[in-house]
Amino acid sequence: MLLLSLSASSISNNNASRIISPKSHQIRALCRVSPKLQQQLKHQQPLTRLCYNPLRASVMAKRGRRFGAVCYSSPLSPANLQWISAVSTAILMIVKGTAIHKSFLVPFFVLQAPGSIVSWMKGEYGMWTAFLALLVRLFFHIPRELELPFITLLLVIVAPYQIMRLRGTQEGLILSLIIAAYLAFLHFSRAGSLAKSFNQDSILATMATICIVLVPCLLLI
């Protein structure tokens, strides 16, 4: 019986070794090959870094285009254009060297002024400014150049909602463009020629006139 048990155990060990041996051989083979694979991967890593990935390149190109478009369009944002229009309108109200009808600048300013300026005029500070200006106007003489800005302030304060609703709309931009084109026609026709409009006396008014024409055009695009 002892001999039979020893023989049975030896047979089972041999079978187990036969069953386990292929796996052990595979594991040993993998362990032998893995250093080679590691060396190959080490040699291939710099190559993969230099390889061209079209998907990654297209994403980077799109990001570059978006960044470039944002950088290009940020100076010409609607808020900046409205500020340029407001400054140009104020220059035309005060400066000399132009023969335009300056009263047309008042509705143009109402339609194209930035929202921060309009809200300030309609607020408490604007009310107090208009009140003090009226008191000064009753007892003192106001220069003619300052009368038009004062009228503009009063017009913004008392303007109804239906008129202020045109601000920022396509109808308001078209109306502003018509006013600006008419003022530009008056300025350049009464200057005599394009060269004379850029003289030392009228160059500031000419640049302001060009700005008030360009701003509605750019906002309509």
Q: Which terms summarize this structure?
A:
221 residues, mainly alpha, 10 helices, 80% helix
Runs with pLDDT <50, length 5+? Answer: 1-27, 45-59, 61-73
**In which range does the helix fraction lie?**
over 70%
- What is the residue-mean pLDDT, rounded to a whole number? 74
* C-alpha Rg (nearest Å): 40 Å
- N→C terminal distance: 105 Å
The 3D shape can be described as globular
Helix-strand pattern, N to C? HHHHHHHHHH
- SS strand fraction: under 5%
Strand tally, please? 0
Main structural class: mainly alpha
What count of helical segments does DSSP give?
Answer: 10
Descriptive report:
It is a single chain. The protein is mostly helical and 221 residues long. The chain contains 10 helices and no strands. The longest helix has 49 residues, at 2-50. It is globular, with a radius of gyration of 40 Å. It starts with a helix and ends with a helix. Mean pLDDT is 74; it is low at 1-27, 45-59 and 61-73.
